[in-house]
UniProtKB/TrEMBL annotation, chain A:
UniProt feature coiled coil, ranges: none
Provenance organism: Lactiplantibacillus dongliensis
Sequence similarity: Belongs to the ABC transporter superfamily.
UniProt keyword ATP-binding present: yes
Organism ancestry: Bacteria, Bacillati, Bacillota, Bacilli, Lactobacillales
Matches recorded under InterPro entries: AAA+_ATPase, ABC_branched_ATPase_LivF/BraG, ABC_transporter-like_ATP-bd, ABC_transporter-like_CS, BCAA_Transport_ATP-bd_LivF, P-loop_NTPase
Signal peptide: none
Keywords noted in UniProt: Amino-acid transport, ATP-binding, Nucleotide-binding, Transport
Name this polypeptide is given: ABC transporter ATP-binding protein
SMART domains assigned to the protein according to its UniProt record, in alphabetical order: AAA
The keyword Transport is assigned to this record: yes
SUPFAM superfamilies: P-loop containing nucleoside triphosphate hydrolases
Origin: domain of life: Bacteria
GO terms assigned for molecular function: ATP binding
Database matches in Pfam families: ABC_tran
Automatic annotation (TrEMBL), chain B:
Membrane-crossing residue ranges in chain numbering: 12-32, 52-81, 93-114, 134-155, 191-214, 226-251, 266-285
Top-level taxon: Bacteria
Protein name as it appears in the record: Branched-chain amino acid ABC transporter permease
Species whose genome carries this gene: Lactiplantibacillus dongliensis
A Pfam family it matches: BPD_transp_2
Amino acid sequence: MLNVTDLVVNYGAIQAVKQVSFEIHTGEIVTLIGANGAGKSTILQTISGIMRPKSGQMTYLGHPIQKTSAPKIVQAGISQVPEGRHVFPGLSVQENLQMGAFLRKDRSAIKQAYADVYQYFPVLKQRRHQDAATLSGGEQQMLAMGRALMAAPKLMLLDEPSMGLAPIFINEIFEIIKAINAAGTTVLLIEQNAKKALSIADRGYVLASGHIKLSGTGQDLLANQAVQQAYLGG
Amino acid sequence: MQTIGQQLINGLSLGSIYALLALGYTMVYGIIKLINFAHGDIYMLGAFWGYYVINVLHVNFIVALLSAMVFCALVGVVIEAVAYRPLRHSPRITALITAIGVSFLLENGMSYLFTANTRNFPQVIKTTTWHFAGMHISNIQVLILGTACLLMLILELIIKRTKMGKAMRAVSVDPTAAQLVGINLNHTISFTFALGSAMAGAAGVLIGLYYNSIDPLMGMTPGIKAFVAAVIGGIGSVPGASLGGFIIGLLETGVQAIGLSAYKDAVVYVVLIVILLVLPAGIFGKNVKEKV
């Protein structure tokens, strides 16, 4: 579905991503794990068209996307749930969701999308008229995911969805990621919580200082000694 | 009591024009954090457009007003695309200086093309003055206040209810997240300039009717005062800009009424200083901490 080949991205003067290659097949949950500053978020921003690669190729459903603008990426079916939620304060929960469907025209499909999101996250329905800024961190994470779902993505990019959340919310969020995937959306998940991410992932890549160090199935990486020592706390 | 009532009416009609202008400053600042110093000159262009279409094409007030709004919206969009968009990623001061440059270009360009002479704005609506409880209220004042309030109401509905209005608010609070949901930044910014400039164009036609004279430098002082109004209300806040406009209008007429006409501009700036000392973010402004 998405093939990334020899991707190089500069972040200011720093080369944040150095010759990274990975692929995502339709229907999978793929995770990129690695320490803070390994270049994970930069990769997602580049796929979403917010940052531009210095070199390398990205092909999505057979089309090159390294020069595609951010709105066109969303239109093509790639939605991102950014790190730190980034819901729109001052807009209500429902208006935030409406923005998620910004590029969609089909009213009945949008209506269905609201219903789906409210089914995944009933709390959002309760709070739909509330200012998004008044939600708790966990609820904002749900709203950010709901907003991405409103675009009916084929591929969902999730950047650190568990960051800063209480354990009860983390479990809920990961259950919902599995449900979203089971409903047909391919998932690329970035996590510092490597254990949790690998446990739900079909495959994973380990990223360190801008390079892919290891790759394998989620279970293999969980069992891998080097991964355990570096990322899973022994 | 009559004097107070009279000044209240004068202040509200003048204030509504400042409010229309202040809205453009605050919306543009809200979305690209730029003080568009050329905004007052767009108001001047609106007044000149009104002057020409009324004199040459003999249109009525409504057509003059609406066509000036459309014309100014286009001018605003072109200015943004040509002058500000290439500087989107430059330091803010670069764009600010460019805005001052655009302002000079419009003022001097218009002086060159149409001479710097003051012209009489055609009185497309015959002025009648009503006497009510000892106060003089002209139909022009009522028209200005009514038109301005109607436009502000429409603007509020656009910002609050329409999809583009919501996109504007989304871009102003978080441009990156807005792009991630598929909002096109350039389109949204153009839309904002169009709305703000249309309001300025309407204000230009209204002031022409009110003061009966226009010239290429007419945008300077009202532009700065409307900017002050936007700052007093809390720059970036739409209701704040409207309120700030009315405050400035009432202040000015009030100061004139007590016989201090010569100090009316000074008083506006004194009030600005006092408000900024007490409420640094303005009346409706949010105290946003810079993220480091």
